[in-house]
Specification:
Length: 697
């Protein structure tokens, strides 16, 4: 019945589409061409994605259910039937990736003489060391917390391993009690032991379980069970009139509230005490659908596998990715400053194929340059040891006027951003902590420099965060320029978002939350008009997520008008392609492979004179209504060709691409008789000649 309702809808459920995306990530774990440590990396990503899905998407669903609010999913189902169907699918996915780990990955690790096992797998010396490690390090850090008539139920932390121990008194009453032991997150997940060529990684919970009786000397232990909980992490912030005080205090309170928020998932070990499980279900007001039980004797929480991946003797087992190539726009400019280069021409960067270093260099040059007057930047997520933050601190210390719009509502990075914000404030930077209830998601940098008697502006705008770490893992695009057409818009944009001015018409920017949806719809309409008048209407859009109904419906209209549409959507796609009378002219691809596809490009054929935009925004309701976003127009002809080449390579790929079917499922694109084309390799071979030869879509 539920399947029929889902298939009848002209839209695909956002949440079900997300699950399909994580299956595509799981395919990377199953890829026979990947080494076992590379597979562990992707398994860790799968696990982390799954946790976040429950924290945010399932958490959001429970916000409706718990508050008796109406919600109709894109599938057409109401909140409770959809909850049941969604959690059933989640349980299936949980079993799928855990089974693959226990049945396949463990065997592949063992073949490399890497063992994730029990204490019994160690020799006598190894067991002695593990016992000593427990006695000296683990035991002093653990704190049993009893729950009974005299002790309230303890606060159980989100996403940590927890032992539930059911005990009985030794007297005739045999009264049961429950105690909880939470494993601190600052303890390494695995005890490492090497003997000969064999390396053992013993999960810390195995050691604790072995010696857990040390905590319960005066009672009888009836059962020891391991579990972890996932809490609702979805919250919104209301706009406060006093943005500098109320807003930040509200944020701090919300972060504290996460510790007490509703439980949306409980993961339990294979052997789990029934009495304890009933107590947890009653306490957290969950049912069997929220319980996910391991079917084999494997481990809970694969996000900790990075300890194994990072083991210092495994470097030869890790994939060897090529070094970044120089941007075609910067060839032959080794000795020039970034300011000199940008005074001559615009520079287009495609990360990680091109290094993020030019952006860091631009910021450092601006910090050191006595002619630079001010720096303005929007920050969403930054690296832990951020060169961006260091450059801004240096600039402030050298007397530059530094303005930072720091988005402290960047999900799960709130605390890090608050810390960095305070650090910048202390250095003398002007820090603005977000714009009320809107998230500042745009990626924009403006540098004001005195050159002779004139003042010249330099800008950087992109699709990714000012984060050196993720720039090596995510594909992103950015434009560096001194072209006044861009810098004038950037200056105007900063004045709008940090002040109260109303913008003039931007020449090269499309912004949200005011203009973006309407502009994109008008660009689609342009292709419709061309097609209806006998011309060739074409649209190609590369984004991370597609969910906005208004744009989807406009794309359906374009399809029925004869416009050829190809969408490259990494993750969530709520548009249903290939449905007769609705979307026959729409093809949807998804690329999942070595890097996380994060770049965004919007291509409109415009009668052979393409209009192309790039920037921070996906086609999401949140992007158009609840975020400050920007898309920048690509004007320079060679850079247009670079953007078109990126789209062409994505369309040609037959190694990492999937095609979305009308029923919402995905099919891996096969090479067939075609020559292998792996975009993750081809971009490292890109040169000026190949770009020049790139054809208009």
């Amino acid at each position: 019945m539920n399947s029929n309702i889902i298939n009848q809808s002209n839209l695909i459920s956002r949440d079900l589409s997300w699950l399909n995306f994580n299956y595509r990530v799981l395919d990377q774990v199953k890829d026979k061409n990947r080494g076992v440590l590379d597979k562990l990396k992707f398994l860790s990503i799968v696990s982390s994605n799954f946790d976040e899905f429950f924290e945010i998407r399932v958490g959001s669903l429970y916000n409706y259910i718990d508050n008796n609010k109406k919600r109709i999913d894109y599938s057409g189902m109401r909140e409770e039937p959809f909850r049941e169907f969604l959690l059933e699918q989640c349980s299936k996915f949980f079993n799928d990736f855990n089974t693959y780990f226990s049945d396949t990955i463990i065997t592949e690790l063992n073949e490399k003489k890497i063992f994730i096992g029990n204490l019994d797998n160690l020799d006598e010396e190894g067991q002695k060391r593990a016992k000593k490690y427990f006695k000296k390090t683990i035991f002093p850090m653990l704190t049993p917390m009893v729950f009974d008539n005299l002790h309230s139920f303890p606060i159980l932390m989100n996403k940590v391993l927890i032992f539930g121990v059911v005990t009985k008194t030794k007297d005739s009453s045999k009264k049961k009690k429950i105690s909880f032991i939470q494993i601190p997150v600052n303890l390494p997940r695995f005890f490492e032991y090497k003997v000969d060529d064999n390396i053992f990684f013993i999960p810390i919970e195995k050691i604790i379980s072995k010696y857990i009786d040390k905590f319960f000397r005066s009672v009888l232990i009836e059962s020891v069970s391991l579990f972890r909980i996932i809490r609702n992490g979805d919250f919104t912030l209301e706009e406060s009139e006093d943005i500098e005080t109320n807003f930040l205090e509200e944020l701090k309170q919300k972060l504290k509230d996460r510790k007490f928020s509703r439980v949306v998932r409980i993961e339990i070990s294979k052997s789990f005490d029934d009495y304890l499980l009933k107590s947890l279900k009653d306490r957290f007001k969950v049912d069997d659908l929220n319980i996910m039980r391991l079917k084999s004797n494997t481990i809970l929480d694969y996000t900790s596998l990075n300890q194994i991946i990072d083991y210092n003797e495994f470097s030869e087992l890790l994939p060897n990715y090529p070094s970044p190539i120089k941007s075609i726009d910067m060839e032959g400019d080794n000795e020039k400053s970034i300011f000199e280069i940008l005074s001559d021409r615009d520079v287009f960067l495609h990360h990680p194929y091109n290094s993020f270093d030019p952006v860091i260099k631009l910021l450092n040059e601006a910090a050191d340059d006595p002619h630079v007057l001010s720096i303005k930047i929007t920050l969403y997520r930054t690296a832990k040891n951020s060169g961006v933050i260091d450059a801004l601190l240096k600039a402030a210390e050298k007397g530059k006027h530094v303005s930072v719009l720091f988005e402290v509502k960047a999900r799960f990075d709130e605390e890090n951003n608050l810390r960095n914000g305070y650090k910048l404030e202390k250095a003398g930077c002007y820090v603005i902590y977000g714009i009320g209830s809107l998230k500042t998601h745009t990626k924009l940098l403006l540098i004001v420099r005195r050159e002779g008697k004139k003042v010249k502006n330099y800008a950087h705008m992109g699709t990714g965060n000012y984060n050196e770490t993720t720039s090596r893992l995510y594909t992103d695009l950015s434009l560096m320029t001194s072209n006044q057409k861009y810098t004038k818009d950037a200056l105007e944009f900063f004045n709008v978002i940090t002040g109260h001015s109303v913008p003039d018409d931007y020449e090269n920017l499309i912004t949200a939350p005011i203009y973006m949806r309407d502009k994109i719809i008008s660009l689609i309409q342009g292709e419709i008009d061309t097609s209806l008048s006998g011309g060739e209407g074409k649209i190609c859009i590369k984004i991370n997520s597609l969910q906005d109904k208004d744009v989807i419906n406009k794309l359906y209209e374009a399809s029925n008008s004869g416009v050829k549409i190809c969408l490259i959507v990494r993750g969530i796609c709520c548009l249903r392609p290939g449905r007769e009378g609705l979307s026959e002219n729409i093809k949807v691809l998804s690329v999942v492979g070595d890097y996380l596809e994060h770049s965004r490009l919007y291509y409109f054929h415009n009668g052979g004179n393409p209009i192309i935009y790039s920037g921070s925004a996906d086609v999401m309701i949140r992007s158009f209504k609840r975020r400050i976003e920007s898309l920048f127009k690509i004007n320079e002809e060679f850079i247009k060709k670079e953007a078109i080449t990126i789209l062409n390579y994505n369309l040609r790929d037959n190694c990492n691409s999937y095609e979305l079917n009308e029923d919402g499922s995905y099919s891996k694109r096969e090479k067939g008789k075609n020559k292998e084309f792996n975009l993750f390799k081809e971009f490292y071979l890109l040169n000026r000649n190949k770009v020049e030869e790139s054809i208009i879509l």
